[in-house]
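Hey team,

Sharing the Iron-sulfur cluster insertion protein ErpA run so nobody has to redo it. Sequence (110 residues) first:
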Amino acid sequence: MSFAIPPRVSDRAFARLAEIAEDAGEVKALRVAVNGGGCSGFQYDIGFDQPADDDLVLERDGHKVLVDPVSLPFLENAVIDFSEDLIGARFVIDNPNASSSCGCGISFAM
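Structure output:
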């Protein structure tokens, strides 16, 4: 699998990373990965991590979002966003490659 259009990060997601860094007193890098599993076949794994040499690094004002090379093709042209709603506040992925997803938005099928 190769990719043509890398994922992008919304203004809201970068703003939330800035808030987290301010609260924590340090800049944190958000890692977005895709793993096999979940109720739909694939699932997003979103957490904080250190950059690896082969990561795609999406950066603004020192705030970084990391995507490993294995996950990258699954996230082609996706938007990494931050959402606050009745379910709660969380980072979310708008992935045009997903043919279906579960109700919580954590797992998807291609």
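The mean pLDDT is 86.

Ping me if you want the raw files.
A.
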